[in-house]
Amino acid sequence: MHDILAPGSTIGILGGGQLGRMLSVAAGRLGLKVHVYEPAENPPAGQLCTDLTTASYDDATALRAFAASVDVITYEFENIPTSALDLLESLRPIRPGRRALAVSQDRADEKAFLQSLGLKTAPFYAVDTEEDLHQAVAEIGTPAILKTRRFGYDGKGQVRLTNPNEVTAAWHAISGSPAVLEGFVEFSHEVSVIAARGLDGAVACFDPGENLHQNGILHRTTVPARLSASQRTDAVLLAGRIVTALDYVGVMGVELFVTAQGLVVNEIAPRVHNSGHWTQNGCVIDQFEQHIRAVAGWPLGDGTRHSDIEMINLIGDDVNQVPTLAARSDTALHLYGKAEARPGRKMGHTNRYLGPAAQG
Ligand code: AMP
Asked: Which site among 32, 34, 188, 305 is 20 to 30 Å from 214 CA-CA?
């Protein structure tokens, strides 16, 4: 029997953004306390967690004190410095574990891992020098996308090459960072599966959502996604294979391209995911509670979708629509408590009820 954290126990969360905030709400509902560790002042999660540490990831004293105050550690973003993880891991369990972090922190390792499971990815070529990039373009062709191996998110650290003459410009655009060149995948649309795996190895997946990006940032997720019954099964089974292969504990976002040749895995995120926010109003147990249940060693909840939902991100000035949105009876508002609406900044999201769950 695994340890089940009793209500009153404390979950430590690395990162205090909106994901940490919504995880804090879910933990609180289950009677669990949350201690958030975040380098920036006044993080969104700080308004709702039980305890907040404001310190950098190289402050060993603060990290030790944080670990001593919690029962288990989880995180809301994948780029946590390795030295901090090494120290924390010696003191408390970290869930999901290091393997998932290592794999998802590096785009080349991630693709190699996915291919080792027999899953399809974009063709890719690891690039460390401009000379490599010439080789990569010769091998993969154009159009192609050059992505930094590490620290990319929301389309940052990416540049498209439409013809081979653009090698030097592309290489400078990513400042010569280690990268991968990816072949361009001809997809009809993008979907994602939010998968969860418990400490006991049980796996539960939410229904795939269909995602629309604008300027590299998620704009909208709709459920049900446009998928055939066999694609839907495929999507869920492949996500299950990924979490099981990693001996994963927690929620993971698996982003997929839908192509004529089947589902191609774009990337995995070892955390709750923006494309899973619809679950807050489409399921009895949402992705945040599911993650907390998993890391606390509780049984996973039933993630069956009861409603069709359209999730829309409120980015930057979109937040000015809040008074109008608040007046809509079919729309649940989720705001992140951020004071300043900078361009590109995720300020909140809406989940609009479309009707009782229909089959996709
Ligand atoms: P990423 O940061 O890797 O999720 O990429 C952001 C977005 O760029 C994706 O959601 C796709 O819309 C697009 N994209 C990324 N990689 C590829 C690819 N290999 N082929 C076509 N489109 C891509």
From this structure: 305
Give me ligand 1 centre to Cα 266, in Å: 7
Residue 178's domain spans which residues? 123-183
Express each pLDDT in 123-135 by its tens digit.
Answer: 999 999 999 999 9
Among 148, 219, 265, 266, residue to substitute to test ligand 1 (most atoms within 8 Å of Cβ): 266
Residue 1's pLDDT is: 45
The rounded Å distance from CA 67 to ligand 1 centre is 36
User: In which residue ranges of the chain is pLDDT below 70?
Assistant: 1-2, 152-155, 359-360
- Which of 145, 146, 150, 186, when mutated, tests ligand 1's pocket best, judged by the most ligand atoms within 8 Å of its CB? 145
Task: Let me know whether 85 and 61 are in one domain.
Answer: yes
Burial class of 6 by CB neighbour count within 10 A (0 to 12, 13 to 18, 19+): exposed
As a whole number of Å, the CA-based R_g of the chain is: 20
96 upstream amide cis, omega within 30 of 0:
yes
Residues 18 and 138 in one domain: no
Residue 145 CA, ligand 1 centroid: distance in Å = 8
* pTM as predicted: 0.95
CATH number, domain containing residue 47: 3.40.50.20
> How much distance in Å is there from the Cα of 187 to the middle of ligand 1?
10
Residues 336 and 215 in one domain: yes
Same structural domain, 27 and 48: yes
